[in-house]
Structure formats: structure tokens, C-alpha cells
Amino acid sequence: MKIAHYFILILFCWSCSSDSSDGDAITPTDDDTPMTVTNPLLDFTVPSNFPDATYSIAQNPPTEKGFELGKKLFYDGQLASDGVVSCGFCHIQSFSFTHHTHITSHGVDGQIGTRNAQPLHNLAFMNEFTWDGAATFLDTQPIIPITAEVEMNETVSNVISKLSADDDYPTLFAEAFGSEGVNADRLFKALSQFMVMMVSANSKFDKLERGESVTFTDEENAGMAIFDAKCASCHAGTLQTDQSYRNNGLPIDPQYNDIGRERVTGLPDDNRKFKVPSLRNIEITFPYMHDGRLGTLENVLDFYTDGMVDSPTLDDQFRRPDGTLGLDITAEEKGQLIAFLKTLTDNDFIEDRRFAEF
Amino acid sequence: MRRFFALIVGVAILLTACNNNDDPGTIVQDPGNLNLVFENTVNGTSLDMAPTTYTNSSDETYTVNELKYIISNITLIKTDNTEYIYPVEDSYFLINEDGSKTANLSNIPADTYKGIKFGFGVDPTKYPIESGTLNFIPLAEEAGMLWTWSAGYKFLKFEGGYANATDPTNETPFLYHVGSHGANLDNYKEITLMLNEFGINSENTASKTIQFDVAKIFDSVHTLSLEEKNEIMVDPVNAPKIAENTSTAFSISE
User: Fold this and answer.
1) CATH number 1.10.10.10 given to A204-348
2) ipTM surpasses 0.85
3) What global pTM score does this model have?
4) Would you tell me how many other CB atoms lie within 10 Å of the CB of residue B195?
């Protein structure tokens, strides 16, 4: 009896192994199988002075081919209905991926958006995206520019069809993701892989924070002290943002009447609140504020001392005891603040060939 | 002796590895399919689109031009109370009164089941890559189930016209679009429906009809009057009420 069982087991084993030898026919040693491309993982390292990444690198680890695909997509006008306006049209590397020939952004057919294109850097450390937090994940954020009439005015489905019919993309998608298929999942993953790698962490400020051999001038040091006292309650930490939404007292622009965060939450308490922006590379990301109304850092500081208007959601920090609005900063201090803000410029990042269009 | 034991275990593993339907001794049946058919109704009868009129409890007559909603995260409850979670990336379905009203689920482990759990909308807390929603975007977009200015979904799109019952010909349009409001307000709902035990296996494709009572959108946990508000979109007060009402609108007809 036992022996019979044993014999059956052996038979099964044998039938199994004959199956697997069928499988051998498709192993990579065979001549007519596609050549396997090597696609090494890229090194995403959190700079030692940075907080933890919020982006789940484990879910979408950037690879060499994924990054290259993301970059090609980022600079490709096919993502827009007119075949011209690419992501890189509004997000230009030399300005830390913002745009400044226009105040608010310009899209397909020269249509004018209502907001100033945000710089793209250190996105892997942000909780929410856009000026009002309308995107809760970096992977879904590109839906907004692709589909917005005033930006790329396209549909995701149509982008997928265009890319599928393209000469190069099907191969590039296959190389990046290990199998055939152009789909939305891969499109957004590739864009994220490109954007997540855009880490700007080599400014003078970073080097000082990391104890590398740089020293601040007296003016920069004085500026940092004023910044810590007057600005860091909102522009907090290494990335100069607590990632909250606040009203900093900008007069409402009747042309746009932008309600800010209220558009996302529907809450009157969020009226005219915008995300506290990171001030990284601030020297080169002008014009400033959600609608780009302020052209220079001097304008920004003059606004903080003298330009605010009251509204029910204005942040309490801007209410002086005597009932007037604004922060107290002397003219000398303004110069020092600007000197400090310029230490946040990271030339390595804006010149990094990995992100360059050409 | 130990080596002999290892051999037996090894052989047993191989055996299970190549276990398939050619194996006469096995009791495991092959997986089967389940078709969930959504039937939109009003108070028990099948919904007719405009110009058919219905009356809500606020004494308003209404007609329906568009009714779409998203169903997701389907889980089946087995008779032993364990659960089978349908692969999330395949579990997003758009139910459209003017289009597809079925969710065809395939490759479900053969077993006896007694309940179905599903989500109304798209769980906003789930990471989109992990939850596989990115591939659902083109379909949702074509159906107009994405907010145009944000990167989120509309869970329910319900549009039509209404009039006061005293003057039913004088119609005004209404529009209810409900989704989550960024990470701020979560209108995603989970629904559990228990039913008579049913088997699923390769020989037995089960089909279940889930009724969605449109009248409950207006009148259930909360009462919503169209005259009071005929356009509800990103509305932190009323959208959650609609979502709660909607979550009570599903039932199984057997």
C-alpha cells in the first residue's frame, strides 16, 4: 500500500517536471526571446538634513528607464491637445521648474490660467500638491494640468492613445516596466519617478545645516535670525513650509477672485487660504504668490510690512496689538532677510543635466 | 530518517504545486465568476429616465437625466465568515444608468458565500498606486467622474430636473455631484449586503442583482429638498448627507 502511494507520488513528480521542461522553452537563453534590458534602480537618498519622504518610494521605486521615460513625457507636447504645451513649457529648469515670463501660467492656445506655476523641487517631501492642495497624491497631480482647458486641454485617454500609436513609447514603456503596455498607471508612475528625483538639497543653507565647510556672512546670519523669529512659524523647517493653508493678507484680485483652499474643502473657514510655499530657490522663482502678483523679494517684504488687507480668515500672526496689520521689519532687516533667502538657491539643482530637456 | 521525512515533504510540496483539475483525488474546485448586476429603481420599480417623473418626500417632482456612480473594493464573505478580497486593481466599476450596469468578477475561489461588501466611491485614503486606481482614470474621465480642477473622483453624478408638485411643468435643473474633498472630507462609504448562501465554482457562474433605490438619495437618513438646494457639489454640509443616504440605497433582491 505504502509503496503504491510512493509510486503515485513519483509519477506526479515526473508529470510536474515534464511541465516545467515545457516552460524551459521560453527562458532567456532562447534566441528568439526579446533581449532583456537592464534597468537599474536609481539611488533615491533622503538628504541628511531633510525630513522623511512622504512619497512611497517602495510603491514606485525610480529606475533608470522609468526616470528616462518620465523625463521624455515631461518634455513632450503630445500630452497636450495642441501638441506643443508640455509640462516643461510651464515648468522650466533654470527657474527651478517654474515659469516667469508670464504672471499666471499660459497654456494651449495662449489661454491664461489663474495661478502662477509652482516650482517643482523636493516634491517627494510634500503631503499635498498645488496652491490649494487639490491633489492629495503626486501620482494623480498631472491629471489636473493634462485635463485643464487653460493648461493642456487634453484627456488622459487620448494621451494614452497617442502614446500607444507612437513609434518609440511602446518600447520605452516596456523597458521601464518590464512588459508590454502603455497605460495610465505607467504614465503617472513614470512622471512621478522623474519628479520624485528632483531633490534640491545643495544650497548654501543646506551645506550649513549639514555642517559642511561653508560659513554664512554676518548679513546672512542676521537674516536667518529674523527669518526664524518672524517667518518660520509658517515657513517652518528645512523646507520652509509647515504645509498648512493660510491667508497671508493678499488683497483679493477681482479678476480671478480666487477662493483658495475653499475650492477643495467647501469650507468658508478656508476662504483665501493658500499653501504655505517652500522658499527653496526663491531667488529665481519669481514672480511671487499664487497669482504671481509680486515681482521681487523687495515687493514681498514690503507687502508683509505694509500691504496686507483684513479679511475674516487672515492669519492672527499678522494682527498687531494696535489693530494694524503686518509684520514689523525694518529696512535694514529686509536687506538681511533677502541675503538669507538667497542662501536657499541651489545652482547644482538648476544645472543638473539629469533633469535638463536637452 | 530526517532526510526521508524531508523527501516526503518535498514530494508533497511538488504534488500541491502541480495540483490541477487532472488530479482525480482533489476536492478543490476551480474558480468561477460572479456577475453583479446593478438595477436602479425608484421605490421598488425600475428607474425610467426623463420625462418620467417621480415625487420625493418634500413634495417635489423630479426627472432623471443622468445617474452614474462608482463601485469599488469588492470583498466576498464566505459562509465561515472569512473573506475573499477581489484584486483591488480590478475592482473599480462605473455603474451608468445609460451604459454598463454590471460588475463582472472572474476567477473567484470556488466556495460558498453569503455576503458582499463593496465601496461607494473611491477610498481617498488609499495610495493610488497601491489601490490600482490609476488605470481607472481614463474610464472615470470619459464618464465625467473626475472633478475638472482637482485630482479626485466624483463618486455619484445625479442630474435631472425638478418642480414643485403644485406646478409640475415648470422644471428647474438639479445637480448632485458627490466625491471626497481632498484629504479633508471623506465621503467614501462601505456597504455590506448579506444574502442567501450561494456557491461559486467553474461550473456555476453566480449572478446577483443589487438594487439601488434612487428615491433614497433624497429621503433616507436625511431629507434633502431640491427647492432648498438644487446644486450640490463641493458642499461640506450636504455632500456627506447625500453620501450617507446613498449608502442606504443598496439592497439585494433574491
Assistant:
1) no
2) no
3) 0.88
4) 16
